[in-house]
Write a structure and sequence with these properties.
Layout: H1 2-19, E1 39-42, E2 45-51, E3 55-59, E4 65-70, E5 76-82, E6 91-99, E7 112-118, E8 124-128, E9 133-138, E10 144-149, E11 153-154, E12 157-158, E13 165-169, H2 176-182, E14 188-190, E15 197-201, E16 211-215, E17 220-224, E18 227-229, E19 232-236, E20 243-249, E21 252-258
Antiparallel strand pairs: 1-2, 2-3, 3-4, 5-6, 6-7, 7-8, 9-10, 10-13, 11-12, 14-15, 15-19, 16-17, 16-20, 18-19, 20-21
Organism: Flavobacterium capsici
Protein name: T9SS type A sorting domain-containing protein
Keywords: Signal
C-alpha cells in the first residue's frame, strides 16, 4: 500500500509538471470577497480588476494597468461588460448596494437593495431602486433583455414583499466569451404570480417539444406548447388551479405561482 501510494504521488506531481501551469501575476484587493471572479470579457479581450473601497483598477490581458474607475463606496460588483447597454467600446459596471441595514441585525426583513449601472468614469447611468438580482438573457431573436427582481432570502427567513420582476430591452450585443460568462443559463419567467400567461426567457421554441408543468408534489399536471407573442415565448397557465408549480423545458426549470 505504501509503495502504491508513493507511486501515485510521483505520477500526480509529474502530471502537474507536464501540465505546465505557469504563474503569471498576483493582484491585491483591499475590498471584495473570495467568490468574486475579478475578471471580465469585452469585445477587446480579457481584463482583470482589483477592488478597493472607492474604486476599481483595470488591467489588460497582459496585466498592464489601464485605468482607475471610481465606484459607489461599499457596493458589490456584480459584473462588468461593454456593448450591452450601448454600442461603444467603454465598459459599464453593474453594482448593488444595501441600505437601511442595522448593525445589530444586517439581515433584517426591512433590508433593501439598489442596483446601479456605472459608466467607465464611475457616473451612474441607471438606478434600479429596491431591486437585488439582475439577469441578462437572450430571446429567440437574439435580442438581449435585462431582468431585475427583488426576490431574496436571509437564512431561514423570506422577504415580506411579493415577487417583482422588471424587464428591460437592451440595445447592445455580446461576444461569445461574454455570453458564456454573463448570460443566465436558466429559464426566467414573469410575471410571478400570474393569472394567465407566463413569459419565458432563454427558451428557443421547438415545435416538436412541449413544456411540462408539475405541482409541488412532483406530479405532472399539464403539457403545453409555447406561444409566440410579440417575439416572446409564453405559455398559457389559465387552466391551472391557484398554487405553486414547476415548469420544465429540456434540462431547465422554473418555479412559478398561479393566482
Amino acid at each position: 500500500m505504501k509503495i502504491f501510494y508513493s507511486q501515485f504521488l510521483i505520477v500526480f506531481f509529474i502530471g502537474i509538471s507536464n501540465a505546465q501551469i505557469n504563474f503569471e501575476h498576483s493582484y491585491t484587493n483591499t475590498s471584495g470577497s473570495s467568490g468574486n471572479l475579478y475578471s471580465f470579457n469585452t469585445s477587446s479581450g480579457l481584463f482583470y480588476y482589483t477592488k478597493q473601497s472607492n474604486n476599481i483598477s483595470i488591467y489588460d490581458e497582459n496585466h498592464n494597468f489601464t485605468q482607475d474607475i471610481p465606484i459607489i463606496p461599499g457596493c458589490e460588483i456584480l459584473f462588468i461588460t461593454d456593448k450591452l447597454f450601448n454600442n461603444d467600446d467603454n465598459v459599464e459596471i453593474v453594482v448593488r448596494k444595501s441600505r437601511n441595514v442595522t448593525e445589530q441585525n444586517p439581515y433584517a426583513l426591512y433590508t433593501t437593495w439598489d442596483i446601479f449601472i456605472l459608466d467607465n468614469q464611475g457616473s451612474t447611468i441607471h438606478t434600479f431602486f429596491d431591486r437585488k438580482y439582475p439577469h441578462v438573457v437572450k430571446n429567440s431573436l437574439g435580442e438581449y433583455k435585462l431582468i431585475v427582481d427583488a426576490i431574496g432570502s436571509c437564512g431561514g427567513c423570506t422577504y415580506s414583499y411579493n415577487y417583482v420582476y422588471d424587464v428591460y430591452g437592451l440595445p447592445g450585443t455580446l461576444s461569445i466569451d461574454q455570453q458564456s460568462s454573463i448570460l443566465d443559463n436558466k429559464i426566467i419567467g414573469y410575471p410571478i404570480p400570474t393569472k394567465k400567461l407566463l413569459t419565458l426567457t432563454n427558451v428557443i421554441p421547438d415545435a416538436n417539444k412541449k413544456i411540462e408543468i408539475y405541482d409541488i408534489s412532483g406530479k405532472k399536471v399539464a403539457e403545453t406548447k409555447i406561444i409566440i407573442e410579440d417575439s416572446e415565448a409564453k405559455i398559457d397557465v389559465s387552466s391551472l388551479q391557484s398554487g405553486v408549480y414547476i415548469c420544465r423545458y429540456d434540462d431547465k426549470s422554473i418555479k412559478f405561482i398561479k393566482e
